[in-house]
Amino acid sequence: MLVDHVRGFDGIRALCMVMVLYTHLGLYDALPDVPWLRERGWHLFGGWVAVRVFFVISGFLITRMLLQERARTGTISIRRFYIRRALRLLPAFVIHMVILALWRALGICDTSTAAMLVSFFYLYNYMPTIWYDGLLGHTWTLAVEEQFYILWPLLLRGLSRLRLDLLLAAVFVACALVELFVPDARIPGSQSVLFRNLFHVPRWFLPAAAPIVVGVLACLHYVRAQRIMRPGRRGALVLFFFCAPLWMPVFCFPLAYPLQSIGIGLALVWLLQKQEGGAARFLEWAPLAYMGRITYGIYLYHLLFIAVDHPAPIFHLPFNLLAIFALAIVSYELVERPVLRLKERFR
User: Fold this and answer.
1) Which residues pair with 194 in a beta bridge?
2) What burial class does residue 145 get, using C-beta atoms within 10 Å of its C-beta: 0-12 exposed, 13-18 middle, 19+ buried?
3) DSSP 3-state percent helix, strand, coil across the chain (nearest 5)
């Protein structure tokens, strides 16, 4: 039986946002010049890990919400789901775009209109690297999630559980294969140009959706996952999968990423089992939980102040961090929360 409120998820989001911030502030460049740390250890605490956690949580919570709606009403309303997602995502996203347009008008950045449109329509995960813009680069994650939101309620409503399981398993395997083989594959019609030379392949829906699939499966098979996570072996299972970047052979290293997502999913199941435990209590610490609630705004706005090359103090430490948090709080309290109240009309 899934609890109504998952204690600790907001705190996890907050900690992951810290990982994203220090990654984009350049922590990797400040690491000691130790090959093992840079090539393997970084994959346990860098920004990519945070993104995988965000994706696993998203897959889990969206699936849970849809299952609860079906249990309550007997069906899943696609229209209401899309309206709820729009109410949650668009207000802050529009604010981000307005500020970006202002930066461009003031000559602070030179982001193109085309790049803004690609981002706004949630396609930035397919943007060729030559046209990538630093102030929009993070919106690839929003694109992956939005593509999931478009597809998943239709599949969950229309397919049997067996077919869903088979489809999800096939998608997960496809993600692993794309992660492993496509970046170093040649572009059709070219003798030397590889896909990695033109695209950020790991940001395509396949393979980026692997953590989302893990979150979905953790929700659909929560009872079975609980049996797997029995005392005495759950810690070992979480560490084995989460630490895949430490033991994965070099020739198939990209497979460490989908395996790490399994570790994250198992850790979240563990947290659900221990809702009264010390970890959940720590993650529910009020400042941490509040930061988790405003994480969407922090994530959207942070590159507006970190990725800008401008002499103004607001674009440099510590003032850029203060600006990010101030804007996220104002956005959440004055725009996002009032709009979120409208979601209740579409439950």
Assistant:
1) 186
2) buried
3) 75, 0, 25
Q: How far is Cα 68 from Cα 72, in angstroms, rounded to an integer?
A: 6
Cα angle for residues 91, 94, 99 (degrees, 5° grid): 130
One-letter amino acid at 19 equals: M
Whether residue 337 contacts residue 93, with contact meaning beta carbons closer than 8 Å, is answered with no
- In terms of Cα–Cα distance, which of 164, 200, 195, 162 is closest to 181? 195
Q: How far apart are CA 309 and CA 100, in angstroms?
A: 14
Q: In the chain, what are the domain boundaries?
A: 9-340
* Mean confidence (pLDDT) of the chain: 95
Task: Report the alpha-carbon distance of residue 263 to residue 248 in Å, rounded.
Answer: 14
* pLDDT of amino acid 192: 86
3-state secondary structure of 186: strand
If residue 69 lies in a helix (H) or strand (E), which one and from where to where?
A: helix 47-73
- For 90-119, how does the pLDDT look when each residue is reduced to its tens digit (9 = 90+)? 999 999 999 999 999 999 999 999 999 999
For 38-97, how does the pLDDT look when each residue is reduced to its tens digit (9 = 90+)?
Answer: 999 999 999 999 999 999 999 999 999 999 999 999 999 999 999 999 999 999 999 999
Hey, what are 115's tokens?
Answer: 């790049």
- 0.70 surpassed by pTM: yes
Q: Is 66 exposed, middle or buried (0-12, 13-18, 19+ CB in 10 A)?
A: buried
